[in-house]
């Protein structure tokens, strides 16, 4: 049953959460710093005075980028994790590959994969919204920009973990309402 445990934990939890954490640390803090620098140097005010909507011009493209990139990162993380778990289990632990694959197929379903992808969309939205908000509301000066970038990452990370918990509860409730006899490790 090691294949089922490894693959289910990767597809449902580790893939989406780790991809979102990487995106929050790398991209989210950069978004906050970039928008914060634009706020401090009054570039956002210049856009506003020229009649351009700063939200439409600056936030919407960043939101869409985070929203659509993180599912592809999640799929890559899932794929690499499943391949790594398979290789470790077969070549290092000496588990029979047929048992590994059979247990993976029995317990990891399309529902698990779809739930992980759904969570990644939500995580992308969380990261984009928090990072853009922190960038737009940053305090003046270089310290304010640094604090905005740090706050964007920390708040995104905490909200990713909290929303992951609540989405797991909701997805499990929906799953067991639709398929009460469904097999699961829960």
Helices, strands, pairings?
Layout: H1 2-40, H2 43-49, H3 54-92, H4 97-107, H5 110-136, H6 141-178
Helix pairs in contact: 1-3, 1-4, 1-5, 1-6, 3-5, 5-6
Task: Note down, in words, how this protein is organized.
The chain is an all-alpha fold. The protein has one domain (about 1-180). Helices cover about 85% and strands about 0% of the residues. The protein is built from 6 helices and no strands. The chain has helices at about 1-40, 45-50, 55-90, 95-105, 110-135, 140-180. Helix 1 packs across helix 4 (about 95-105). The longest helix has about 40 residues, at about 1-40. About 30% of the residues are buried. The mean pLDDT is about 90.
Give keywords.
single chain, 186 residues, mainly alpha, 6 helices, 0% strand
Series of H and E elements: HHHHHH
Low-confidence stretches: none
Helix share bin = over 70%
The gross shape turns out to be elongated
Proportion of residues in β-strands: under 5%
Mean pLDDT: 91
Q: What is the total number of structural domains?
A: 1
- How many β-strands, per DSSP? 0
- Describe the biggest sheet? none
Q: Radius of gyration, rounded?
A: 20 Å
Alpha-beta classification = mainly alpha
Q: How widely separated are the two ends?
A: 14 Å
> Helix count?
6
